């Protein structure tokens, strides 16, 4: 299968590198907005590149791996008319690809990517959706070339999957940043929290997060909660507000269950 990748960011980079290693798959071209990004990625996998859709090469599939705001605009490009196209977004509906093609779909790898950090792609789940059953089979074939974990879900499910992922990854990371900031502002080394963080995540991977919950809110310890909120308000009002909201959510969750 010949594929072209539109985009040269984090997701595009990891897909391109892993497809280049896969059997029966050839990345024929990288298309990007800037010469630097297109050339840099293309040179890593020894394929052609362009910034001009007039120079688009023939391929069996075009993967739009750009930011969400530009997916629909890219998909409407006249050079992609009646082509097999997919996007890689977790939150954008498949229907945004309908303007220019009858064979369209979604190829969503759920992971947090950085260009500079290698990942074991064989363990990354890929979620697929397509406008027709034959195209869905084609996407399943493609996904199984780079991962052992392939799931067929619709756009509504994928939207809520992405929201779950934001809580699990983005929000969790931000809470860890807050923990780091609070520690540093009180002359404490963030390193001393890392054994606790490690144990927390190891428990999550082996057990139900509901059952793992501990802390003042789980115990409904209003005296400690009030003291924490008072102390946080002196550091950052935003932190105390976040503490209140999460504590109330924990109390409500464990009171009702």
List the helices and strands and how they pair.
Elements: E1 2-6, H1 10-21, E2 26-31, H2 35-45, E3 48-50, E4 61-64, H3 68-75, E5 85-87, E6 104-109, E7 126-130, H4 133-143, E8 150-152, H5 155-184, H6 194-206, H7 209-212, H8 216-219, H9 222-235, H10 237-255
Parallel strand pairs: 1-2, 1-4, 2-3, 4-5, 5-6, 7-8
Antiparallel strand pairs: 6-7
Helix pairs in contact: 9-10
DSSP strand (E) fraction? 5-15%
How many structural domains? Answer: 2
Helix content: 40-55%
- Helix run count: 10
The CATH superfamily of the largest domain is known as NAD(P)-binding Rossmann-like Domain
Quick one: how many beta strands?
A: 8
Largest sheet: 8 strands, mixed
Average pLDDT works out at 94
Strand order of the largest sheet: 3-2-1-4-5-6-7-8
What's the architecture of the largest domain, going by CATH? 3-Layer(aba) Sandwich
Low-pLDDT residue spans: none
Enter the CATH topology name of the largest domain.
Rossmann fold
- Specify the CATH class of the largest domain: Alpha Beta
Rg of Cα set = 22 Å
Shape designation = elongated
Reading the helices and strands in chain order gives: EHEHEEHEEEHEHHHHHH
Structural class: alpha/beta
Distance between the termini: 51 Å
